[in-house]
Amino acid sequence: MAPRDRYAPVDAAVVPRFADVATFLRTVRAEPAADIDIGFVGVPFDLGLNYRTGPREAPAAVREASRVIRRVHPTSGVCPYDLCAVADLGDAPVNPMDKDASLAGIEAFFARLRDLAIRPIAIGGDHTIPTPILRALAKDRAVGILQIDSHPDTLDQLCGTKVNHATFMRRGLEEGLIDPARTVQIGLRGSRFSADDLSYGVEAGCTVITYDDYEAMGRTAAIEAIGRVLGDGPVYVTLDVDGIDPAFCPGTAVPEIGGFTPRDVQVILRSLAGKDIVGADVSEVAPCYDPTGITALTAANMLFELLCVTALAVDRNR
């Protein structure tokens, strides 16, 4: 049996979607192995937040919400499970009493995936998690970044700490993990700590598209800019769900009004078909603030979008 068949999700036309234990997109729960191409990983970590906690609960909520999603993409027709082996690898290890130990454990887990050539799609957790993930994945070469977010995450420190949900871009640029010439930050908006919150990314050479910019240029032009900047090299995608307007995603740690619709983000992610996606995350889902579950459902759908474009990258590079 081919690996892609061994790890294929159950068929919702045969097994009811409400049945059995929840996994991401109903894929097989497995330990990391060399025959897995793409691995979903929960990262239940929220020790990097300075406002509302809760994203530690997101992996479980997104697993449940993802039951509704079927196998074939409605627009591209891509069935990722026909292209490669996809599995739910469980959760990265965290210590709820020790931020540094958690970060070290997360980094070690993703380093193991890198060594096995598994492309990870992480479900956070707060937006600290790209720091240990990138330290593992981009250890040997910098990657381009598509950051969909309402905040730039380029602060040097927050509340006296250097590694938190507002610093991952700063640390990644400083540590040479992120190639600024191939990086796009899009959707930035909302009030700021200081007048120069955006300046570090701009001065480092990142392409910064605020939500005001996006609204002025339009989605088509923004997608063209993203494609041009990311180029042909390895790309890591990070989606903070507060980039989406809280009318659609109220369950997040730091909601900011006036942002993307889910449709905007879907189309942006679909435009990444053809890019060399080496990893991704969906972060900052806080289920406790959304009794409707729509935030987790939106995150699950974005997870499927990311899976489809990553599966195309695996198939192309095989």
Strand tally: 9
List the strand order in the largest sheet.
1-3-2-4-9-8-5-6-7
Order of helices and strands: HEEHHEHEHEHEHEHHEHEH
**CATH top level label:** Alpha Beta
The CATH homologous superfamily corresponds to Ureohydrolase domain
Strand content bin: 15-25%
Instruction: Write the CATH architecture name.
Output: 3-Layer(aba) Sandwich
Helix content: 25-40%
In total, the number of domains comes to 1
**Biggest sheet details:** 9 strands, parallel
Q: Could you tell me the radius of gyration in angstroms?
A: 18 Å
- The general outline is globular
Distinct helical segment count:
11
Distance between the termini: 18 Å
Average pLDDT over all residues: 95
Predict the CATH topology.
Arginase, Chain A
Residue runs with pLDDT of under 50 for 5 or more positions: none
